[in-house]
Amino acid sequence: MQSADIEQLNRKIHAESAFIDRLRAETAQVIVGQEGMMERLLIGLLSRGHILLEGLPGLAKTLAVKTLAQAIDAQFSRIQFTPDLLPADIIGTMIYNPATHDFSARKGPVFANFVLADEINRAPAKVQSALLEAMQERQVTIGHETFRLEEPFLVLATQNPIEQEGTYPLPEAQVDRFMLKVKVDYPNREDEREIIRRNIAPGDDYGKVQSVVNMQEILSARESVRQVYMDEKIERYILDIVFATREPEKAGLGRLRPLIQYGASPRAGINLALAAKALAFLRRRGYVIPEDILYVSADVMRHRIGLSYEAEAENVTPEDIIKEVLNAVQAP
């Protein structure tokens, strides 16, 4: 693209992303701090990507998703995953109607715009796989009927990193379908003081959110995100990062070879590009810069790198691998 074209695109994106400020201001009335988590939720929303939130209880994961759905006037449903959950509890089932002597489909809670899969690793694999078709194909099959899911459709799953009794590890195929894996941490001291003040204040206004964005604005924004300009140098940078996790010796990182069981999948490269474009849109910019890639790299790749037994013995984390890769790969 010529510089004049990029400048014109930049103005267009800046105008079309104006609703982001309204959305952030409205959600900030309920969610104190956690700007990083909220920004990543918006990245997933704008790039049609599902998000896995990992964090301790009480860090506003559920509240953040519910608040975002209310601010967008979207349908929200929450599924509490438990060991006795059945696939039909998620997608729905066929119900016999005595009046018509026929079966009809009763849709499950997955038929919503925002689906919160709470503690997803507490359900067995057959239940987790019921969510798989919806996440990947954006459709659900009940009996002999197949139903398309309405857009926007976003699955936000949570899991507790410390309480592992009675949990089932997510299959690699399902984990790979999450665009981002976001680690949610404690708020800082000032934010937590504000959280306490809001929760003990008189009245019941806390937690109420007005709808400030409609569905059409979100769908239009998704189209605009795809138009954000990405230079060939940025594309090569993404490929260099992804391939460095698969062939570390070629990137001068031979010492990582024994620590990596398998590198990032092709979805890592796709999602790095999409997440960077969405981040540029959130920053009201019509083009991607290397800093956008650096910002989203850990969230895109931490669940796509398999560690060897040697890495686990040495307490090496995926974040350590990603940090070394980013330091070794030269940015454009």
Helical content stands at 40-55%
What's the CATH class label of the largest domain?
Alpha Beta
Average pLDDT over all residues:
87
Rg result: 21 Å
Secondary-structure element pattern, one letter each: HHHEHEHEEEHEEEHEHHHEHHEHH
Number of strands: 11
At CATH level 2, the architecture of the largest domain is: 3-Layer(aba) Sandwich
Quaternary organization: single chain
- Biggest sheet, strands in spatial order? 2-5-8-1-9
The main β sheet shows up as: 5 strands, parallel
Our estimate of the beta-strand percent is 15-25%
Alpha plus pi helix count: 14
**What would you give as the CATH superfamily of the largest domain?**
P-loop containing nucleotide triphosphate hydrolases
- Count of folded domains: 2
Q: Which residue ranges are poorly predicted, with pLDDT under 50 across at least 5 consecutive positions?
A: none
Distance between the termini: 17 Å
Q: Based on helices, strands and strand pairing, what is the structural class? A: alpha/beta
User: Which term fits the overall shape?
Assistant: globular
CATH topology of the largest domain: Rossmann fold
Summarize the structure.
This protein is an alpha/beta fold and 332 residues long. Helices cover 46% and strands 16% of the residues.
Give your account of this protein's structure.
- The chain is α/β, with parallel strands linked by helices.
- It folds into two domains: 20-221, P-loop containing nucleotide triphosphate hydrolases (Rossmann fold, 3-Layer(aba) Sandwich); 228-328, Magnesium chelatase subunit I, C-Terminal domain (Helicase, Ruva Protein, domain 3, Orthogonal Bundle).
- Helix content is 46%, strand content 16%.
- The protein has 14 helices and eleven strands.
- The strands form four sheets. A five-stranded parallel sheet has the order 2-5-8-1-9.
- Helix 12 (290-301) packs antiparallel against helix 14.
- The longest helix has 17 residues, at 266-282.
- The chain starts with a helix and ends with a helix.
